[in-house]
Design goal:
The complex is a heterodimer of chains A (about 240) and B (about 240).
Chain A lengths: L1 H23 L4 H21 L4 H9 L4 H5 L4 H38 L5 H25 L8 H12 L12 H8 L8 H8 L6 H27 L8
Helix pairs in contact in A: 1-2, 1-5, 2-5, 2-9, 3-6, 5-6, 6-9, 6-10
Chain B lengths: L3 H28 L7 H14 L1 H11 L2 H7 L2 H5 L5 H6 L6 H20 L6 H26 L1 H5 L5 H9 L11 H10 L2 H4 L1 H8 L4 H28 L6
Classes of the chains: A mainly alpha (about 240), B mainly alpha (about 240).
Chain lengths: ~240, ~240
């Protein structure tokens, strides 16, 4: 119940804000509908493709609890990947009441606003986004073998996600230079691209964007894997 | 403060969060009006939110996040056997000093800058009423937050309950005019989140509103008493892990 409310509250107050701006005339009906749909789409993306295991993995490293997982026959990153993926899917259950409420109140708006024939592409980009975000979290967790306050890096990740990835506000609302910077990072493919695919009928260059997203997934997989292997050599625990 | 590097890292992080929050506010006000607040009024409210954020984020969250483990693992026994009031002990367990500099100093400087830039200089009466309402707001925040935490004594297994109020508190950055219908009624009475920042902030740039101020004080008193009552009642239901 608490998790459901935690999912619901941030989205709802932003929707209230846009409703208020629409009532006052600051934002047109079309812009309001775009923002409403965007908030719900980013909520779904955040629930299905986010990755947040770095804080408890860093805690385990600091407390010497990594010994047992590192001795397992399955590589720990593979275990984490599967664990997070399952948690993402299961965590979607918390979102269902929210989505039902949204469907009840704004069902017509969503049916008309979503480009249903792009759902397949949306799913593909979500999977690639999950892989990229998992790799970033693994990199942050790996730093825990070297630095005591590796969790601080999570804050930087959240900040960059909020601005450059478009999780707080659509990228189009930010200055052009921020949008440009974002387009050169993997964050561009976390919220902005999937949301545009599912919402913007004029969105083109899918093959190019797919290539970009795959490129970042491969690069981040290679880097995170390399850094993890280097990092575990620094691990020491009582009895190990 | 044993680990100065940690303090400095989080000091830097809090400054960055404050900066990003300001960017977020500026983008929003660039799009349109927030309720009936003008641009400088919205930024004043943002500065005040940053200052007040020290209390729920830097103090209460730090202390109250220990409460689930105390209740579930029997740590409450130690607290209850102390000769000091348990509510007081729980409430002052932990504090994050890194937020003080970034939020208090940064928020105050930003506030003074906005007054200077837009030539909005509150009168002495407005400053005094703002100071008074700010204190009341802090009591209201504490009362509501603590009341939400006392639920643990009745349910035991709610390890994420301390996040609930923090998420709700984010809604206080918007004036009550943003919310309509049942949402406004709830957020100005049962869960007066919409008043926590708005009432002290509006004392700085609007005329006096004695009825609202009295209502605000009454709300703070009610929630303080409710929190206390719920805590005392909940302790009777508390079953220790070891006794």
């Amino acid at each position: 119940m608490v998790w459901m409310l935690l999912e619901f509250i941030p989205t709802m107050y932003i929707i209230f804000l846009w409703q208020s701006m629409n009532r006052s005339g600051s934002v047109s009906d079309k812009q309001y509908i775009f923002m409403l749909v965007y908030q719900i789409v980013t909520l779904i993306i955040a629930r299905l493709a986010a990755s947040h295991f770095e804080s408890w993995v860093v805690d385990d490293i600091k407390n010497g609890k990594m010994s047992k997982p590192l001795l397992q026959p399955v590589p720990y990153p593979v275990f984490l990947f599967v664990l997070e993926a399952v948690w993402r899917v299961f965590g979607f259950v918390y979102l269902i009441p929210v989505l039902l409420a949204v469907a009840f109140v704004w069902g017509n708006i969503f049916i008309n606003a979503i480009i249903w024939q792009n759902i397949g592409w949306f799913a593909v980009f979500m999977i690639l986004s999950y892989i990229q975000r998992f790799c970033i979290s693994l990199l942050i967790a790996s730093v825990g073998f070297w630095v005591e306050q590796a969790q601080a890096l999570s804050h930087f990740k959240w900040m960059l996600e909020g601005v450059l990835a478009g999780s707080w506000l659509p990228l189009v609302l930010y200055p052009a230079w921020i949008q440009k910077i974002s387009s050169f990072t993997p964050l561009y493919y976390w919220y902005h691209v999937p949301s545009q695919i599912i919402m913007n009928p004029d969105f083109t260059n899918l093959p190019l964007l797919l290539g970009g997203s795959v490129f970042w997934a491969v690069i981040l997989l290679a880097i995170s894997s390399f850094v993890w292997k280097k990092s575990i050599r620094h691990y020491s625990a009582v009895g190990a | 403060m044993e680990y100065r590097a940690n303090f400095l890292i989080y000091l830097f992080i809090h400054f960055l969060w404050a900066g990003l929050d300001l960017v977020f506010t500026l983008v929003i006000v660039g799009v349109g009006r927030i309720g009936d607040w003008t641009v400088p009024q919205a930024i004043i409210a943002f500065c005040l939110l940053r200052i007040v954020d020290i209390v729920p984020w830097g103090w209460f969250l730090e202390s109250f996040s220990l409460l689930p483990s105390f209740v579930n693992d029997g740590g409450m026994d130690t607290i209850l056997t102390k000769p000091i009031d348990s509510q007081y002990l729980i409430s002052i367990k932990k504090f994050s000093f890194s937020m003080i500099i970034s939020n208090l100093v940064g928020g105050t400087i930003a506030l003074i800058y906005i007054f200077y830039k837009y030539n909005i200089w509150p009168s002495a009466i407005q400053y005094l009423s703002f100071a008074f309402l700010l204190v009341i707001s802090l009591f209201l925040i504490y009362g509501m937050y603590f009341l939400s935490m006392t639920v643990l004594l009745y349910t035991n297994r709610l390890n994420n309950i301390q996040q609930l109020f923090i998420q709700l508190f984010d809604m206080s950055r918007l004036p009550k005019e943003v919310y309509v219908g049942a949402a406004r009624i709830i957020l100005t009475s049962i869960l007066p989140i919409a008043l926590m920042i708005a009432v002290p902030a509006e004392a700085l740039f609007k005329g006096p509103d004695p009825l609202m101020w009295i209502y605000f004080v009454v709300l703070a008193i009610v929630f303080l008493f409710l929190g206390r009552w719920s805590w005392s009642n909940g302790l009777r239901k508390y079953a220790s892990a070891s006794s």
